[in-house]
Design a protein that fits this description.
alpha/beta; Rossmann fold; UDP-galactose 4-epimerase, domain 1; binds NADPH dihydro-nicotinamide-adenine-dinucleotide phosphate; binds guanosine-5'-diphosphate-rhamnose; EC 4.2.1.47
Amino acid sequence: MKTALVTGITGQDGAYLASNLLERGYKVYGTYRRGSSVNFWRLSEVGALGHENLELVEYDLLDIGSAFRLIEKYQPEEVYNLAAQSFVGVSFEQPVATAQMTGVGPLNLLEAIRMVNSKIRFYQASSSEIFGLVQAVPQNEDTPFYPRSPYAAAKLFAHWLTVNYRESYDMFACSGILFNHESPLRGQEFVTRKITNTAAQMVLGKADVLELGNLDAKRDWGYAAEYCEGMRLMLQHDTPDTFVLATNRTETVRSFVEMTFKALDIAIEWKGEGVDEVGLDAKTGKTLIKINPRFFRPSEVELLLGDPAKAKAALGWEPKTSLEELCRIMVEADMRRNKAGASF
Ligand code: NDP
Ligand code: GDR
């Protein structure tokens, strides 16, 4: 039986990856951090909670001693490092904590693997945020980096260390530069899920208005379950490497809003400019969307568009779900949950 350790098991990707690996007959050690109340709702949604081959293990990625004990005790064949402070907006408020969790956290694991058993295969959850200020599009493995937030700078540190441990110690260390990937399991603070969930609540009379920041930011959005399969494929490849996973299509936040309301049979008409812009129900004239400056970031990544050609050629990986389909899946899940009174 193959063994894998997945950090950040309570997150969106942790749930999809755990479910993927369990279906393939893996023994999975999933790490979560101690808190006053730990929430396993995502594992429950994918049907992984309580699986006989899933063992949940407490781990704080800031504690290097824990990293050593974890690797020594379980000696997994594969380690997928997904845990991080993953919200870009918060990284401007908590830059030092983000640097430690998102930057130094992966280094703790790399060190533990190097010292305990350097044959263990390691996946680092790198991010398209490291491309930051546009240098070239579409962005691929050779595009220069220009991080625009403490989060992106921390992810870039972890990316380079992954590459450095691969080259210095001959470790099987892979960096997956993943573009935004979404699903009904996405946290509500991220823009896609905030939009689908609030829109569902508005239709059900549980919310009045959707408040957003920069509507013109462009993102390359894909479906999270497919990206987690890409992570697995990277660790099955003959050689360790860096891969971009993306859809090669970019859309504005504004079009994601339109897509969401369209899935609910509502057409949006935009009026006004800048912070005074509003989105109206084209039929009734009711204001549905407002701009709130609170949601703007001190510096923004305006355009992400990824080229996944290398992953397709080497891993046979390609995205399958269109953005319209993904949006519809998310809206329907949020309608169902809100009707049932669920709060996640
Ligand atoms: P989530 O925010 O959903 O999950 C993050 C996970 O990290 C949670 O399980 C969280 O635990 C855990 N975590 C946070 N801090 C600590 C800590 N100090 N010790 C232990 N665990 C901790 O993120 P996603 O699943 O969306 O993303 C997975 C990874 O991929 C992240 O590293 C993210 O930065 C990266 N990434 C994500 C992309 C995306 O579009 N989703 C794109 C590119 C990269 P808790 O539940 O307790 O908060
Ligand atoms: P991102 O995702 O920063 O790309 O990071 P997020 O969904 O937070 O923002 C996407 C874009 O939407 C704009 N935006 C808003 N964002 C949020 N959260 N809330 C709003 O109200 C809002 N209005 C407009 C943002 O300014 C931004 O341009 C995600 C995370 O999963 C990271 O962990 C990951 O590394 C990257 O994707 C790739």
